[in-house]
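Would you mind writing out a protein's amino acid sequence and the numbers that encode its backbone to help me picture the idea?
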Amino acid sequence: MQKVIARINTLKKLIQQDQLDGFVITNNIDQFYLLGFYFYPGEAVLLLHEGGLVCFTRQLYVEPLTQQYPFIRVIGQDKQMAAAAIKEVQDLGLHHVGFDAGKESYLSGNLFKVSGLVEAQSYVSAQRQVKDAEEIAALRDSCKIAYDTYEYIRPLLKEGMTELEVAAEMEKYMRIRGVSATSFLTIIAFGENTANAHHETSDRKLKYNEAVLMDFGCIYKGYCSDMTRSWWFGDKEPAEYTKIWNTVNKAWKAGIAAEKPGKTGQEIDAVARGIITDAGYGEYFTHRLGHGVGLEIHEEPCNDQTSQAVLQKGNVLTVEPGIYLPGKFGVRLEETTVITDEGADILTRP
């Protein structure tokens, strides 16, 4: 309860700094962050104002929400929640109410604008960038489940298994350990498929002496994990594969070592990218170095070529350099890390 109140009060201060007397929240992940109550998309609209918080939601949620959060005014509204929030704004006499333009649908956003609401920043996203101790603990647990899954599955791989079969076995293992879902569609790639950075897991069968890449994660207590491992399945590893694996490994270690408060995402990306470029594979590193992780698998801040975001203690980001040789094979190594006082701590480890 105290955490919910603290997060609401922080948001209230943020909007007041921009001279807003109210703020509408329609994104269900932002709503979960604020309340710890999960709505599916489109099931609720929150209106925060100086006098308190109003929640327009499906009738079936009214009783549990009222019992759990007696300080919130809950209104049963199975349809037209955005319109109901606008009417509440008018009834309360609020004059400068914002909405998160970056997350709003076209229809609702247009309705808010024509009703006098103003486009505002993603205040809750800004709050979510710095994780507290409880969030980091949940992220660490989520990452440990992912790591244990890798340790479980690798010895089980054998010729003839399909990518889909491997993914299914991994997902079963994670679900039994209490996860609610995968963080994203599990990527299992064999052979030439490893050269596709975001390969769609298929019925391709594993052969002896070829590359393997797996990129996966899970959602545990609401928080995501993300990790990637690449290796050669067999005893005749090509010299070129060894070279790119070692290059990516070097970039991966350097990227993590470079992470610390005060550095920008662009600076971190440049460290790892420079190693790959110097090795002659710059054109084959085709994506950013990493992204934020939290309640969603892709959040801010990011480690990329243009990010001017300054890292701060409590940010959680991936470091995932890769080299992909079309038609041959690819390598990506990825950890989820948390920024500490002096550097970065790897979460995707035992």
Observations:
- The chain has a mean pLDDT of 96.
